[in-house]
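Archive transcription. Copying these from loose printouts into the bound notebook so they stop getting lost. Printout 1 of 2:
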Amino acid sequence: MNTRRPMLDADIVNQLRSAASPPPPAALRRSRARVSDWFTKSAPVIQWGETRSPLGRLFIAVSPQGLCAVDFGRSEVEFLRRLDPRARLQKDRQAVEQVTAQLYEYFSGDRSRFDLPVDLSALTPFQQSVLETARRIGRGEVWTYHRVAREMGRPKSSRPVGQALARNPVPIVIPCHRVVASDGSLGGYSGGSGLEAKRWLLRLEGALS
């Protein structure tokens, strides 16, 4: 029995060599130019800014659909890495002025709810539903993870609810800090400063002594 492998003809060999070799410089330049042109004309734009707050340096980002990120307790580099990598990032303090103003009012005790469009498009429908439910919790109130699940009509989903709250891209504005464990413990918190920030926010609102 002949077990020798058949010889590849010259055309196939040349095709394989061509596929394995890098493209010529001119082709690379054209490809990069097309990507750059698309990025400039079509990539989504996220505008961001920063401000001081009682929780330290606070970062804010907005998309054309609304507020898409609030973060604190992290560096600027860490914050920017959390934004959509496909977007063009523009630092523009004026673009986030409305958010900044409402946050100042919140920290001073003059605002209990935020009147801002929020962009949750990066999340799953379930995660969006959890956050929209948490948005109903009033200042000074606390709900349990189980209550959030029950309000959604998903009473057995306490754990997924907690996981969704941990993905909250706009803490404070969507008050996931107002959700605690059934045993009265604080549970988790998605804000950059962790449970220390959650405890501080609940004290600010009068829900924790």
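Printout 2 of 2:
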Amino acid sequence: MKCRKCGGKGVINLRQHRLILCKDHFLEWMPEQVQRAIEKYHMFTPQERVLVAVSGGKDSLSLWDILTRLGYRADGLYIGLGIDGGVDYSQESLRLAEQFAQAHALKLHTFKVTEAYGLTVPEIAQRTHHGQTKPCSVCGRIKRHIMNRTAREAGYDVLATGHNLDDEAAVLFGNTLNWAAGYLVRQGPVLEADIPGVVRKVKPLCRIYEREMTAYAILRGIEYIYDECPFAVGASSIYYKELLNRLETDRPGAKLNFYLTFLQAKKAGLFSASADQGRQNLHSCPNCGQPTSVDGECAFCRMMARVKSKPA
């Protein structure tokens, strides 16, 4: 297996592109692809400040690495959720995020849920969702609130997340199975800051396969947490990824084509503006100032009020 560009030893076969690359040319290729996505979808400019949501995993740390290599002004945000697994999941994730930031002389904002609210995310979920053991919906709500608030209060122009193509294709697959129009119309590489209180959100890795991100992290020597969140076991998104991987094996490029043709169809008018009524009705929460579509306080503030009202 030889590199298409130099004839040297190939380290990765990008089947969807019919491209074999050596280590050096692959590490050049990746930032080029990310830069193309940034420009194609008008994510941000070199003059804007970027806040990267980092979890200690391969995608977010690699995204931070790529953006700094490209010359963008990118800082990191780590959110400690208080989740334990076979290892102390949150503590190990924080260690790796801090280690990366220190090694590259980068700024890392750290927000610990337990310090701010006195409870871990699983404990908050138990108090608000009748003792349920999987806190995924609560976790997502808390992270979205903290990410948007931190980016807004710290004056960042854009919030970048490490969602890769496999993540986006799995979400698209699930939303298409259920024809979840409201979610489908919002899915894309960019969620504009077209509503007061909302910071622009972007996904620069949306066209990069997960295996490519793994290869990049390993070849760049980025140490990351290998363990999945312990609550991810049995998640529908993982099942959808497995199905799409089977399709990709038989038809290289199927996931990329699925996602890109969806974006093209949406741009061509697949959904009407009325499909996203929830976003159209957003206004500021009177308590925290974050956007909400319901009357009165936002879902996050109402959730935390319920938590405080229940005894330990």
